Amino acid sequence: MDVRLLAWEPSTGWSAPLPGELDGSSTLVLAFGSPSQEVAAARLAELAAALPQAHLAGCSTAGEILDRRVAEGGISVAVARFTHTTLRQTEAAVVAPTDSRQAGRRLAEVLAGPGLRGVLVLSDGLVVNGTELLNGVKQVLPAEVVVTGGLAGDGDRFAATWVVAQGRPTAGLVSAIGLYGDRIRVGHGSRGGWDSFGVERQVTRSAGNVVFELDGEPALGLYKRYLGERAAGLPATALLFPLALCGDDGGGLVRTVLAVDEATQSMTFAGDVPQGGRVQLMRANFDRLVEGAAAAGRLARRGQDRAGGCLAVAISCVGRRLVLGERTEEEVEAVLDSLPPSSSLVGFYSYGEISPSATGSCELHNQTMTLTTLVEA
After folding, report:
1. What is the DSSP letter of 128?
2. How would residue 308 be classed by pLDDT, with cut points 50, 70 and 90?
3. 130 by DSSP, 3-state: which?
4. 59-79 pLDDT, tens digit each
5. What are the extents of the domains in the chain?
6. Were both Cys, which of 14, 234, 237, 362 would link to 230 (CB 3.0–4.6 Å)?
């Protein structure tokens, strides 16, 4: 397995020549970026021209990760040529959140087959209900297939996201890449680092990922009381105070607000918030966020130490970046330091992360650092 990392920056262009010598049907190209869609389309076209046989995937971001660096406005790229692994790629359109489960099923039905070991999912970050998307995937794929990935970002604007399809940035889309073979090892790890505070509240009215009432009160009004003067910056400021799903049904999952509706006093989250469940507000603990990133790396490297370096795909929540601010690169450094020596790290800041919690099937997470490691034995 041969891995190259490179970046495109508006002021300097490509950091290295595009590695056309790695082109082939077993080559994966991951491109994560936040330039304008027009600029992104031009850069993706250059990648597709240099590596025409490769599987090109990627999405828009709330910040790009490459090695130990976090940037924005450019594109971070990893090119990985596998030796013993077969790749398959497919896409599904999502017009409305109600299409999410069926899109997940369609993706999984195309990828299901002998030798499937892992699936990397990259999804539109605003239209898709991540919980329902994964419910559709889980209806088809066996539990032993590792499903990871994330939801595309758009900084703190929440206006428009895109996913790469046929070499072009496209809205309202989910892309999935299947990895097949006896030699591919897919590791995963996901950890948060937020602290709960305040009282637990019951979700008295919700529909899927839209919450209307908490403890019988309009959800948005109650949430604004917690935010105080920060309420004027919604929905972006909600990233600083996510909700934890409490009790057995929650499973430790966290949910982040994607949109608010003043008319209905409701909040739309990246994944489902079950009616009748209990939730609790969370806030940041800087040191625990960085330690959570390191813990995700340690989880993802389990069983891969003897294989040497790996390609690691880091998907962290935009809320973590907003909270960490100038310390953001500390969590990226913590991840890389926890991985085997000579590992390559690429990734992005997202609107949602996809990974098994520790073991078991995939779930939608918010406010976590999620790692996927790929290596051939």
Report:
1. -
2. low
3. helix
4. 999 999 999 999 999 999 999
5. 2-191+287-376, 194-282
6. 237
